[in-house]
Structures are given as C-alpha cells and as structure tokens.
Amino acid sequence: MDNQPLAFYEYLDQIVNLELKAKRVLQGATQIRYTAARKLCGPPLSRIAADLILRLPPSSLIFISTGAGNPTTLPKGETDGPSGVAFLTRVLNALSHPVCVVSESHFLPAIMASLAAVNILITKNSLGPHDPVSTFASPFPLGPDEADAHVRRLLDQHPNASVAIFIEKPGPNTAGVFHSASKNFLEGDPHDGLMPLDYFVWAAIGKHRTFVIDTGFNSETAAQRKREFLRCPSEGLKSLGVEPHKVRDVILTHLHYDHVGNFDLFPNAIFHLQDREMAYATGRLMCHRRLREAFDPEHIVGVVRQVYRDQVAFHDGDSEIVPGISVHHIGGHTLGLQAVRVNTARGWVVLASDVSHFYANFEQKRAFPNVVRVEEMLEGHLRLRQLAASPKHIIPGHDPEVMRRYRPPSPELISVCVRLDVDPIEITTEREVPSEIVGAHQHS
Ligand SMILES: [Zn+2]
Ligand SMILES: [Zn+2]
Residue 132 Cα, ligand 2 centroid: separation in angstroms? Predict the structure, then answer.
C-alpha cells in the first residue's frame, strides 16, 4: 500500500465519510469529526487504518461491534451496521484474520445474516490456528458492569485479539433510556430517530467579573432521573479557571432540576431569577404532577432559603444586570423562564436555555412537549431572533449539535467545553434534505 499515491487515500477518505442520511440534525457531524481526527492524526485516515491492519500479527483476532437498526420504537433506524461488518469481515478474513462480531443478542441475527449473504464462513466459536479463517458472534450484555466483565472474559479467551473496530450505532444511555426525536416536538416527529439531549452550564467570563448561567445537576439526580452523568459542572467550570466559591453572580434561567441542581456549590453567589419563576415553582400550579415533574422540591426550598439570606436578585421581564449581560423573560416552558443575552467579541449571543431545547425547535418553530404555555414558547422562538445578532448567535439549551458546531477552548477540553464567543465551525457538507420532508421535518 506504500506505493499508492496520497491522493488515492484522500479519495478513499471522502468516500468513507460520505453522509447518506436524510436527517439534518446529524448532517455535517461526520465532517466535523473527520476534520478533528485529521488534525490530530495527520495523514488520510484510511491510510492509517490500512497501515495498522497490515502490521497486525498473522491470524490475530479482530472484534467488530455494531448494531442493526433501532428498536421498534424508532422505525427509521440506521441499517449501515450489518453491511459495514460484512464488507470489513470479507477484507479481514482474506488477510487471514478471524473476526468476532460483538453486539446485543437481538441485533446479532440481522448482522450474521448479512455475513452469510456474502459467503463468509461462520462458526460457533473461534477455530484453531490451522483451521480455515472464520467469523463468529459474541452476544454482548447490557449495562456497564456486565459489559466490563464480558470484555475481560473475551480478552482472556482470545489472547490473539489485536484490534476492536466499532461501527457507529445509536443506543440507549447507561440507564437504558432511548431519546427519540418524537419526544422533542409537541406534535411528534414523522421521521423518528434517536435524538438525545445534552445538558449544559454556561459561563460568561469577563475581565473583571464572571457570570455562571445555570448550575446543572449532580450524580444522584442523574441516577434518579436516568440521565448519563459526565462530570460535575463545578469540575467543568474549574477547567476554565472558574472557582465556584468565588463566583458572585449566577443567573438561573429557570428552576428545573437540570438548571438549578448544584446551586449549593456557589455559596457566595447572588442568584438572578425571574419573579414569575419563583411564584410558579412555589404556587398552586405545583399541585399538578405533570407541571412539577421537572422540579425538585429540595432545590426550590434551597432557593427560598437563599432569598432569606439576601442571595436572590429578582427580575421582572427584561433586565440589564450589567452592561453586556441582560435577562429576558420568555415563559412558555415554565412560567418564569428567562433567556440570557451576552455581548461577546462576535456580537450578541443569546443563551436560549429551554426556550429552545434544540436548534430544530426555534428554526422550525416547533414547540418542545414540556410546556405550560405553548403560545409563549412559540413567541419565544421569535424573541430569540430579535435578541440575537443573527440566528447563528442563538444557543439552544440541550442540543448536542452545540458541541459539534463550536470549538473547544483548548485541545484538552475537546468534548468538555466549547467557546460560544467565537464563530461556529462552517459546516461544508451538503445540508439539503429530500423535498418531501422539508418544512415538516428538517432535524431528527
Ligand atoms: Zn427546563
Ligand atoms: Zn432543561
């Protein structure tokens, strides 16, 4: 392969990274990851992969992991896993490497059928070194503990294992919860697909003062509410040089558990909150289970205590906290939800918080189902546009796209934080979708 010109691998990279999805939320994501990987690795990725495979000891076992479409709740699931495995396995078997296909047991029949369809020799277990090169399946358990034990067993049983290849597949989080697109739009989503939420805290760091906007939630809440917990927001802030106990201003967009948990990690802060949010979270509407679901009474009581310690600053409607930072009552999702507008080097950035969970909510004027007043939420989408320097200056509250569109402040913080005061990465991939789903559905 050494004698192949570099351009050959560049073309191969392009083919391998072609995005074939008609799902706009994820369109362009491959390009961003590819660009990042090239920055780290240098030469074309297909060449690195080829070099690696050619350097493997003869007859070493290769694990390939993938899925086979989504569960029945997600009818438009991905199907590229099995064909990808079949293609790779053909190549690897030809190079004398046995393959072990690893997937959840309910996915295996479809994957193994794809392998059988291209005449790959399938056996029950791995064969001896003098037998023909074969491929076998290993059902993978669910849950982190079982998975860990299973991986250790596999490695013990197969000392000739050398590489594991993962073909991207959507899956439930560690608590077994799938987040699908239809859960993110009030009217449902005709092209359902996996659409998970990210949870953020934000910081506006100035020369003299730092404002923290929302405080996230902690590991206990994550376990209770079946959310994956990546890190304590205070750790994320510390990596930016923000010490929670030194923070003097925290803006709470609203009092939902995922925005006000950890408020106690900011003992010296004034909490900026809308009058209407406190009234809502402590008033008669909390008698309705559906409306109080996303509130945690411990947080609410805690914030009431802060009032008695002179640590809450109430705002009513639009309010400038300091020049360059203002809050704007929007309502809708909760009665006192506020968006935050920050003047940055690239102009006015608006942290929408739960005014718009996803880009798709405000871009397509589609309400998120967790809503008290639909009209306020929909009007709120328009208000975001008025407040922001451009639509590119609006930051939705829970969209994983944000982490893909913006750059980390430093290489160590890849996938931890991004800078919102710097223009987003231009997405160069074709972002059009088939005409019949434009309007009705652009992101899923
Ligand atoms: Zn909320
Ligand atoms: Zn939220």
Answer: 55
The tens digit of pLDDT for each residue in 10-37 reads 888 888 777 665 554 555 667 777 888 8
Could you tell me the distance, in angstroms and rounded to a whole number, from the CA of residue 353 to the centre of ligand 2? 7
Give the number of whichever ligand sits closest to the CA of residue 217: 2
Q: What angle do CA 307, 311, 317 make, to 5 degrees?
A: 75
Query: Which pLDDT tens digit goes with each residue over 180-229?
Result: 666 777 777 665 666 788 999 999 999 989 999 999 999 999 988 888 88
Task: Please give the distance, rounded to the nearest whole angstrom, from the Cα atom of residue 331 to the centre of ligand 2.
Answer: 13
Residue closest to 211 by CA, chosen among 299, 278, 270: 270
Q: Which residues surround ligand 1, an ion (CB under 5 A)?
A: 256, 354
Residue listed under structure tokens 């009513």: 316
| Residue entry with tokens 């930072």 | 325
Cα-based distances in Å from 279 to 254, 275, 341: 11, 6, 23
Q: Are 231 and 216 in contact (CB under 8 A)?
A: no
Q: Give residues whose Cβ lies within 5 Å of ion ligand 2.
A: 258, 354
- Find out whether 296 and 253 touch, Cβ atoms under 8 Å: no
pTM: 0.63
